[in-house]
Write a structure and sequence with these properties.
Layout: E1 2-3, E2 7-11, H1 17-23, H2 27-30, H3 41-50, E3 61-67, E4 70-83, E5 88-95, H4 105-120, E6 125-131, H5 135-144, E7 147-158, E8 161-171, H6 172-179
Parallel strand pairs: 5-6
Antiparallel strand pairs: 1-2, 2-3, 3-4, 4-5, 6-8, 7-8
The structure holds coenzyme A.
């Protein structure tokens, strides 16, 4: 468990899968993700079963927010493309419950994920890809310290047109300077 003030990250449980299916079928959510097909419970259950083949550091983490009713599942995040020689990893994040958008939870979850990446996994660079059409995410990542490193022109076909994808990165030295 990685616990912050209002957000905590924990391992994903089989019981979480139903909510993920619900959220990953919401066009308002998936317009920002690589997911473009109607997702079934069976597909998501297979995704969950296949997690056992991933190394521990690449396991997805459920994002929970502290509410008056207790900790509530709102989304998930993870490291992938972990490169142990060059000490880099890519992060992905989504908050599927739209009631929790735009209240700083994404930024806080990302900060916890970065803490885990730099302090526990000993990464030197964390990067991500974000659609140019997702200003909320870009802003949240800038708050966490990410800077734009590149632009993949017309990389993704979304809603009938090609859009650019931004590559954003954060170095350990930059992250440490931000903590000081
Ligand atoms: C991206 C995501 C994780 C961000 O989390 P969040 O909790 O909504 O974001 P935060 O509240 O931490 O930060 C959002 C920032 O963007 C700003 N923002 C919100 N909507 C905006 C818009 N349309 N244009 C510009 N800025 C916007 C907010 O005001 C806030 O900035 P501020 O703190 O300076 O006011 C979450 O919205 C999400 O999962 N969305 C759906 C899936 C997705 O986009 N995943 C990321 C794929 S790369």
């Amino acid at each position: 468990m990685i616990t912050g003030e209002r957000v905590r990250l924990r391992g994903v449980e089989k019981e979480d899968v139903g909510k993920f299916v619900l959220w990953l079928n919401d066009p308002e959510v998936t317009q920002h993700l690589l997911m473009y097909w109607p997702l079934t419970n069976a597909q998501e259950e297979k995704w969950f079963e296949d997690l056992k083949n991933l190394e521990p550091a690449a396991q997805p983490l459920a994002i929970e927010v502290k509410t008056e009713q207790g900790w509530q599942l709102v989304g998930n995040c993870s490291y992938h493309h972990l490169d142990w020689r060059n000490r880099s990893g890519e992060v992905g994040i989504f908050i599927g419950d739209k009631n929790f958008w735009g209240q700083g939870y994404g930024r806080e979850a990302m900060n916890l994920l970065l803490q885990f990446g730099f302090n526990r996994l000993n990464l030197n660079r964390v990067y991500l890809q974000v659609f140019e059409t997702n200003p909320r995410a870009i802003r949240a990542y800038e708050h966490a310290g990410f800077v734009q490193e590149g632009r993949l022109r017309q990389d993704i076909f979304l809603n009938g047109r090609y859009i650019d994808v931004l590559v954003m990165g954060l170095l350990r030295v930059e992250w440490e300077a931000k903590q000081a």
